[in-house]
């Protein structure tokens, strides 16, 4: 009888310990993010979450594929680096079920000068580099079209590729590069359309340095807002709600505005 009682006691203690570990882990949020500005913003979120009893661990990524794969596999609780069109495209191409739970900010795309200093100075056959992933390439082409340099086929919209260029009076040559290479490519091209976070990491400011910029009140600002993504089914977890609340706080809004000088714009939804 004593042996049975002892065994029950041991099992009870093990259950209590495991329960304690589980409860503790529920208070830890592991999030994947691009280094700039996402991880920098998240660093400011840490003390806000600590007040609510949550620990935030930030894992930084330099590409746009691994943070979604890690989220799908369960290695991450959330990620913060992408906009919804990219997420939708990724889900479609990879069979993943990742969902957006909040909009946090918008990074205006800019057309930055390389060997050519202005739009007016672009010569016939000028080289313009754009991101090579489908959603960001379309966004870049739309910005180039807004400057009157090309005209896209009707209806191409956010699915446009360089094959959708219907009119190209200056014979602009579109060079597709990995997003992370764009800032470094400026010395080799006449201009480049650069993602906001890549521009920041490359020491560029879209407001001060670009020769053309997306309007902050444009459709692009809403369509391409950067989001918090989670695996489907985790949308209503207490930790995720706490993360969103912290990211959309007045403290973070002030930090974004003060730190990034228009290169990152709060877009809380």
Outline type: globular
Question: What percentage of residues falls in helices of 4 or more residues?
Answer: 40-55%
Strand content: 15-25%
- Which runs of at least 5 residues are low in confidence (pLDDT < 50)? 1-9, 19-24
Rg value:
23 Å
Q: Which CATH first-tier class of the largest domain would you pick?
A: Alpha Beta
The H-level CATH homologous superfamily of the largest domain, spelled out, is: Periplasmic binding protein-like II
How much is the average pLDDT?
A: 91
Distance between the termini: 61 Å
Number of domains: 2
Q: Do you know the CATH architecture of the largest domain?
A: 3-Layer(aba) Sandwich
Describe this structure in words.
- With 269 residues, the protein is of the alpha/beta class.
- It has 2 domains: 149 residues, D-Maltodextrin-Binding Protein, domain 2 (3-Layer(aba) Sandwich); 105 residues, D-Maltodextrin-Binding Protein, domain 2 (3-Layer(aba) Sandwich).
- It is built from 11 helices and 13 strands.
- Helix 2 links the parallel strand 1 and strand 2.
- The longest helix is centred in the N-terminal third of the chain and has 24 residues.
- The radius of gyration is 23 Å and the shape is globular.
- The relative contact order is 0.19.
């Amino acid at each position: 009888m004593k042996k049975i009682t002892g065994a029950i006691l041991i099992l009870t203690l093990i259950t209590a310990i495991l329960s304690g570990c589980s409860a503790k882990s529920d208070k830890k949020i592991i999030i994947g993010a691009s280094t700039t500005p996402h991880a920098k913003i998240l660093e400011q979120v840490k003390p806000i979450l600590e007040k609510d009893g949550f620990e935030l661990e930030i894992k930084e990524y330099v590409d746009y594929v691994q943070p979604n794969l890690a989220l799908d596999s369960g290695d991450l609780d959330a990620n913060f680096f992408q906009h919804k069109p990219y997420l939708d495209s990724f889900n479609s191409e990879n069979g993943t079920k990742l969902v957006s739970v909040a909009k946090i900010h918008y990074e205006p795309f800019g057309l930055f000068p390389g060997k050519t200093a202005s739009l007016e100075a672009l010569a016939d056959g000028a080289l313009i580099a754009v991101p090579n992933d489908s959603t960001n390439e379309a966004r870049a082409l739309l910005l180039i079209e807004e400057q009157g340099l090309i005209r896209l086929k009707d209806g191409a919209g956010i699915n446009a590729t360089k094959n959708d260029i219907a009119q190209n009076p200056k014979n602009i040559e579109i060079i597709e590069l990995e997003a992370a290479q764009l800032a470094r490519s400026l010395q080799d091209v006449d201009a480049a359309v650069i993602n906001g976070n890549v521009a920041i990491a490359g020491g560029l400011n879209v407001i001060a340095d670009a020769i053309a910029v997306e309007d902050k009140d444009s459709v692009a600002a809403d369509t391409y807002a950067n989001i918090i993504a989670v695996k489907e089914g985790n949308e209503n977890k207490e930790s995720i709600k706490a993360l969103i609340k912290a990211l959309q706080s007045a403290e973070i809004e002030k930090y974004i505005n003060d730190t990034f000088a228009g290169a990152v714009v709060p877009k809380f939804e």
